Amino acid sequence: MIRLSTSWMYQQSLSTMLAQQGALSATQGQVSSGKRIGVASDDPAGAAQVVNLDHVLAATAQYSSNIDGANTRLSTETSTLNSVTSLLDQARTLAVQGINGTLSQADRDDMATQLGQIRSQLVQLANTTDANGNALFAGTATTTTPFTLNADSSVSYAGDDGQQRAAIGSGLSVPNGDPGSALFLNLPAGNGDFVASAGGGNGGSLVVGGNSVSDPAAWNVATAGGPADYTITFAANGNWTATDGSGNPLLDASGNPVAGTYQEGGSISFNGMTLALSGTPAAGDTVSVKSGTQQDVFTTLGKMIDALHTGDQTGLGNVFNRQIESLDQALEGVSNTQVQVGSRLNMLQQQQSTYADLNVTYQSALSNVRDVDMASAIGKLSLQSTVLQASQQVFAKVQGMSLFDYLK
């Protein structure tokens, strides 16, 4: 015979009500928070999925933030490079005007002042910072002021040759700045292939004009062993001869000396290059040809300013022709950088769009795992509440009963 004691009945009823209260409380928590998983014990496998999805969403949010920062920096760089281009165009226009022989010395002095202002503005632009105060053109040394205009009008660089990058994905980064050394300093001199300059001690009126590589194949052969280094020397009758960097006569493919006769307004061609000349050389005047050299844009402006103060039209023409070439190289470098920046901005836009789509997918997956079905939870809450109330009423009824109720 099984004996059911009154205390056992009380204990069973109390345990049942406590369990129902716990279940009801858990359901109430789900309804109020909207989440099915509050603690890992609610669904260990689901909780692990929630943690993983939270990590993915956090990484996506960080990459998106990095993209926003890179967008801001690159947009600022684009605007700055547009201003740099405008200044270099102004300098080039002044250079073309400066070759005009009708300008007075006062006009040249005014032009030199304008070029000095352009140089100062260019230094200021080269020191542009982003919204956080980090330099755009200092390489990876973003906390430094990269360019300084010294008292002697020279410009020094305190940045490095590195490239600041922003992480925009797992194993994916994009440059969000450019080193000023590449953009403003380490520029090819002359026409980009070589520099042809009239000798400083020339006594005639010879002016070296535009130069170019007219025969790339011959030029490649001539420079296969290293940079070209030639000197062209003129005789009184316009005859000229060429020597190499060691002063030895330059020989053609047949072993004959490289030489010819210059006529005013003509050109000289050898080893794949053509030099356009004007004016009349005096006996002993020279033209030097050097390849593989570099010149920073600030030096270019400085040479133009110095030449404007000399008053020598022949010297001014020779200097300005070379500096126009250098300005063209600087403009080409800025243009190439602008194209690269545009490509980076396009890449950032595509990546940000990808993250926007992924974020929707991840949030949906997270909701499916973590969030509660509200309609089902409310129905469950109502049922649990009804069951608990019934249990409480039964307990109250049983609690008031005793053996004496049956002995009446």
List keywords for this structure.
408 residues; alpha+beta; f41 fragment of flagellin, N-terminal domain; 5-stranded antiparallel beta sheet; 3-stranded antiparallel beta sheet; 52% helix; elongated
Mind sketching the topology for me?
Layout: H1 6-33, H2 44-98, H3 105-126, E1 147-149, E2 155-157, E3 165-169, E4 172-175, H4 180-185, E5 194-198, E6 207-213, H5 216-222, E7 229-234, E8 239-243, E9 259-261, E10 267-270, E11 273-278, E12 286-291, H6 297-308, H7 313-370, H8 374-399
Antiparallel strand pairs: 1-2, 3-4, 5-12, 6-11, 7-8, 7-12, 8-9, 10-11
Helix pairs in contact: 1-8, 2-3, 2-7, 3-6, 6-7
In a few lines, what is going on in this structure?
The protein is α+β, with helices and mostly antiparallel strands and about 400 residues long. It is built from 8 helices and 12 strands.
